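Record format v2
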Amino acid sequence: MVYTRQNQSALTAAQKRRFVSAVLALKRKGQYDDFVRMHVEFYVGDGSGGHPVAHMAPTFMPWHRRFLLEFERALQRIDPGVSVPYWDWTVDRSPHSSLWGEGFLGGNGRRSDRRVMTGPFAYGGGHWTIKVGVTEGEFLTREFGRPRDPIELPTKDELAWAMRDSLYDSTPWNSTSSRGFRNKVEGWTSGVGNGRFRNHNRVHRWIGGHMLGAASVNDPVFWLHHSFIDLLWSRWQRQHPQSAAFLPATKAAGTERVVAGDEPMPPWDVKPSSLIKHGNLYRYA
Amino acid sequence: MDVQTSPAGVGPAGRGVVSRRTVVRRVVGVALAAAVVPAAALVGRAFREPRDDMKDAAGGDFEETYRGRHIRGTRADAPMRTHTAHGAALWDVTVDGRPLHLMSRADGSYLTMVDHYQSFPTPLAAARGAVDELGDQILRRHAL
């Protein structure tokens, strides 16, 4: 049955509670940390001679679409009524938004060590110990807006700049692609200062703490952020019906290091072309 | 969309690709400048600012104390050849003796496991950037 992913700001207290409970249950069973590990494993740079799939590559969109589906299915095995909400960071921009409330994701980290002190994912609650982290720290960390060098969340204008590009992606199909919706939303630029962080990347930077590093999945906001990124791909397809929804469609000169639309994408070996539409599985409200 | 249902209870597991452990353990830096930069220009590298120019991406070993943390970077002696035909260098970087994995980008810059979103022109600058972000935290004994 087709289910709905809702805007997090529209969730009732009961819906938030069910989502949080399912996430905590997944953590208790050890499965949540498998998702953290998988994201770490697939974050490969585009300059290291490797074959990046999850980031800095055209498959940024389909890879994370499938990653979210795996996570959502794991949640639904615990509570079939749960789906992954999305966070529209162009609208809910305040550190005091209900997103960061006691009954949902909890708030900012404290100044001294960036430890999250409120909500269900605060270390003190005993339900959220970091097991797969870059550091030995066992508590979830956040540092909203990086106070020592302040940065804002992406604006509507910045997102519109990415959405306007009618090309999905372009050569050289990596973090240096100057044209294309994919890299503009993912957010790699050659800019300086805060200008170098765009859209998706800027949100990771704005939250800070765990969201900044390899183990970003440790912060459950990761899923709400990427649910919105997923929605943006669908919205972009609607706005550019004449454009190819994914590029490169097939292997060609210059695409040797990326997965083309008709090739199997690891680790699931599904073709990106099979992940372009999702209307038979879920829709966005 | 055609999506097969995973067996219940099976978490995500990477397969069929080179794991990042293999790829990132020793980051490959393209030694674009190594052959043309005079040895004299490489002296004093460890004392330069994080905004070093791109030539430093191909630089030599470094070791320094930065904000009270001991940073060390070692480049493999024998450059490898890559499919791009550029000479390449492998890097091992540690902070207080613990491994800090670096990742190189297509533009020749570097990212670390601590900060996946800010690129630096050299391994040393990336290591300093990681220290800036670490605060009081210490890296795991064995990197992810």
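Chain A touches chain B through 63 residues (CB under 8 Å).
The mean pLDDT of chain A is 96.
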